[in-house]
Amino acid sequence: MKVSTAAEMRAVDQRAIEEMGIPGAALMEAAGISLARVCREEMGDGRRVDIVCGTGNNGGDGFVAARHLANAGLAVTLFLVGALADIKGDAALHGSPLPRLRGVEFVPLGASGDALDLDARGPFDLLVDCLLGTGARTPLDGRFARVVEQINAAAERWHCPVVACDIPSGVNADSGAAEGAVVRATSTVTFALPKPGLLLYPGGDFVGQLTVADIGIPHELTDDLPTLLTTQDEFRRMLPAREETRDSNKGTFGTLLVIAGSAGMAGASALTALSSLRTGVGLVMLAVPESLLDTAAALAPEAILKGLPETSERTHGGPGAVEAALALAEKATAVAIGPGMSGNSEVVRFVQEFVGRVSKPIVIDADGLNAIASDSGATRKRSVDLPTVLTPHPGEMGRLLGIKTDQVQADRVGAVRAAAEKYGAIALLKGSRTLIAAADGRLAINRRGSAALATAGSGDVLTGVVGALLAQKLSAFDAARMGAYLHALSGEGVARTQGTTGVLAGDVRDGLPIARQRIYGPMDLDEI
User: Could you tell me the fold of the domain covering 232-239+253-519?
Assistant: First the structure.
């Protein structure tokens, strides 16, 4: 599913009107009808709906909804925050009948909006926020901030749901910033495409149930947008269910080489290896420092174990280790490197040289990322035809970019795009609302997930998932975004069966086949 910024959506609307000849008033009518439908669903048996409108197009959507709700026999009160003379264009067209409509109490409040006093007008069955749209400047101040505070206070006092039109007022449509006064919606109806601010935190906390309403904009006008929301339908189309045939074998589904582990960290290597098998790769070669072979064999008996020359600290990087690893990589379809490798200087040299020379798709995580942070040229040495995926958490992303972790979190979209550009790779920034960026400007947002994933080793599981999808011939961008989706879905499944406290990374690993099977089941996943 495509995602649009506020500016991109305005441009698409304009093209629909000018190039396709679709009247703007018709688009507004479709938006208002969709808003009215969700309002009726939220109200249940309620009869009274109060709509707070501004004078722009967001208010125009509310004018349409008010007409349709009144036609359905509901008691509608519409508060206009602003002057009648300020309503222009399509909004004015749809607003003109309101003072004469039976069933609609039309209350113009003038420019200040101070006379609203919502709390005194309760009780309510539903409040609707049509105050501001996706183009509003945030944080809000003055009259708009006061009106938003009134909406929230009235909803809390009278225990009624709030439906937001397009975006909750106060949320930045592009960044998800939500400072100062922000409408806390029970449900949000957005039009044509979701906006980044509805999907990213902290804005996502104010959205409630999100509905993306089709208002008739032709798909060809949105096909070139660079941002995506990964969905169940996309996963199914990109990676069809495995058809078991009599002549299939483990080689049919790819071979992944996992280079991981060190003394005391063999568990990370096993988690990555077994997670890739749980994702569906046919065969895994697990390459660990040679003294860890017995330990790794006990932890990951399904993997083919390979010992590599080690250092005196029992880490990767002993004499001849790079050449031995490159020889193993020739037998693989893809490579995963980094989990549990430690950060000594021998490991750093080993990773940098191996990454720069290996001629297979690769996913780099954990200590592998720390190694290339001091030499971004390691990934740049790779051919542009060789897929490369980086999977940092915010701290690792900070090291990759040479900035602090809180700077990463303050602009996650900017950080993941900067890393993709700097390293010439696909960058996957872990966290709530995992982000995946390509150097060509593409961005994918993963909205799925659970607090169950906040457990040690969860990242090692994700590395195995992404590596398995690379080995199954997905592109780097698609392997990263589909991997994040499957990993998150497994975390959700674990949370449903055992809660979010006390979850182990092994639980997430073992939930991967069930999560993947669910994807291929009925289209029942609530994507929005």
Answer: UDP-N-acetylmuramoyl-L-alanine:D-glutamate ligase (3.40.1190)
